[in-house]
Design brief:
The strands form 2 sheets. Strands 2-1-7-6 form a 4-stranded mixed sheet, with no helix packed on it. It is an alpha+beta fold. 23% of the residues are buried. The longest helix has 13 residues. Helices cover 27% and strands 22% of the residues.
Length: 131
């Protein structure tokens, strides 16, 4: 087991790029950015949500590649809703070194929306053995 000194790590170190696991142990996405509260003077910010998807990851990339990545995310929007995909911090059950376990099923998360669409519209239409 790895021991971490809390003073040496930031929220970015502990949360960004972690895989999201739903309440049934299934993959549900990956953390691309964080949403923090706007604190009062002298107060620390509080984590309000985990952000996922190309519109969250694009600004982290920066430059032309980041702008291109965000544009792809905006064009692939399937339904109206919040972008980037937002997972309320209240849904976080457990955080460890590699993953974040959530209290919700992936089917109910915006971060899973594109994968579900891909499975239904593309993968599901490929002919072949379905067993």
């Amino acid at each position: 087991m790895t021991r971490w000194d809390e003073d040496e790590f930031t929220a970015n170190d502990l949360l960004l790029d972690r895989e999201l696991i739903d309440c049934h142990g299934m993959p549900a996405g990956r953390v691309d950015d964080l949403e923090l509260s706007d604190p009062e003077p002298g107060e620390p910010p509080v984590l309000t949500a985990l952000l996922c998807g190309p519109t969250a990851f694009g600004p982290r990339l920066g430059g032309r590649l980041g702008t291109w990545w965000q544009a792809i995310g905006r064009r692939l929007r399937l339904v109206s809703g919040s972008y980037p995909n937002r997972i309320d911090a209240g849904l976080i059950d457990h955080v460890d070194r590699l993953e974040i376990t959530l209290l919700a099923a992936r089917e109910h998360l915006d971060s899973y929306r594109f994968r579900r669409w891909t499975e239904e519209k593309i993968i599901g239409r490929i002919p072949g053995d379905t067993t």
